């Protein structure tokens, strides 16, 4: 701070010039950060519209002419509609159940007198401390014994509850004023109505955050489909892409970039619609 003050005194800057200088520096940092974040997406989309030989010889160059051969080849090689359905159905089911169950557990722990809620809370925290890899073999044996291998159930129900999401929603539930809940009970609302019509709308930023994180995690999940899915009709996009990239020749690499671009679209759409509440959740203005 002293160095900045001495420099400003030497330059004889006016308050307006100081303000402009700080804003300019901030914008330059933001532009640089945006470039670092956005360039991989630009690189991916750019190469998806180039021919394979052009990608191999000049991957960073702009396409001389837009080519749709990558997208055409992907739709010919893979059953994209079926893969999109599988990934979307699994991701949406996991997201809906996870958000609902996490909110219910968080509400029960924070706003009710459920017996044993401290044990439930500690169990949720304890589950966050276990490395997921540690549970792969026990979970696989359980799913195999239950006959869930090669089914949608194995991709949805084992991850319908998350200790991290419970903990995250709990932080928003703590900010709820109990007066609103008591007023609803006095008006004749039962506990489910209080939870559904009063509590949930007031923690919308937290739910939006959990929705985005859960959807992204489920959509990008690769380990569980690789472990549990053998039937091609149940494969997700990520698993199909992994098998596809090992089978295509190098000259058709544009198909890999096209498939990667297609896979990224749903996550971008979900974030676009929920970004306002997502930002609120991390700026602390979700509740007023």
UniProtKB/TrEMBL annotation:
It is found in: Cell membrane. Residues 84-274 form the ABC transmembrane type-1 domain. GO terms for cellular component: plasma membrane. Keywords: Cell membrane, Membrane, Sugar transport, Transmembrane, Transmembrane helix, Transport. CDD domains: TM_PBP2. Signal peptide: none annotated. PROSITE patterns: ABC_TM1 (PS50928). The chain crosses the membrane at residues 26-46, 83-107, 119-142, 154-173, 194-216, 256-274. InterPro entries: MetI-like, MetI-like_sf. It is a multi-pass membrane protein. The keyword Transmembrane helix applies. One of its GO terms (biological process) is transmembrane transport. It holds the Pfam family BPD_transp_1. Belongs to the binding-protein-dependent transport system permease family. This is ABC-type sugar transport system, permease component. It comes from Halobacteroides halobius (strain ATCC 35273 / DSM 5150 / MD-1).
């Amino acid at each position: 701070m002293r160095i900045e003050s001495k420099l400003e005194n030497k330059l004889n800057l006016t308050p307006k010039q100081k303000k402009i200088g700080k804003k300019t520096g901030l914008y330059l940092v933001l532009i640089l950060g945006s470039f670092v974040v956005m360039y991989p997406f630009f690189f991916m989309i750019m190469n998806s519209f180039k021919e394979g030989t052009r990608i191999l010889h000049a991957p960073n160059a702009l396409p001389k002419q837009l080519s749709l051969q990558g997208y055409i080849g992907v739709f010919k090689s893979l059953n994209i509609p079926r893969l999109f359905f599988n990934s979307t159905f699994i991701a949406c089911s996991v997201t809906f159940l996870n958000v609902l169950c996490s909110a219910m557990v968080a509400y029960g722990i924070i706003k009710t007198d459920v017996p044993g809620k401290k044990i439930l809370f500690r169990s949720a925290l304890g589950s966050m401390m276990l490395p997921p890899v540690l549970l792969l073999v026990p979970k696989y044996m359980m799913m195999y014994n239950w006959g869930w291998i090669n089914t949608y159930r194995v991709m949805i129900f084992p991850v319908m509850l998350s200790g991290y999401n419970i903990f995250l929603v709990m932080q928003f539930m703590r900010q709820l004023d109990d007066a609103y809940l008591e007023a609803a009970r006095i008006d004749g609302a039962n506990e489910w109505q209080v939870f559904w019509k009063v509590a949930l709308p007031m923690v919308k930023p937290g739910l939006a955050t959990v929705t985005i994180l859960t959807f992204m995690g489920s959509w990008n999940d690769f380990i569980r489909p690789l472990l549990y899915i053998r039937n091609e009709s149940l494969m997700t996009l990520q698993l199909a892409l992994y098998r596809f990239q090992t089978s295509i020749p190098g000259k058709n690499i544009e198909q890999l970039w096209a498939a990667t671009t297609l896979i990224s679209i749903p996550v971008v759409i979900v974030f676009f619609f929920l970004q306002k509440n997502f930002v609120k959740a991390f700026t602390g203005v979700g509740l007023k």
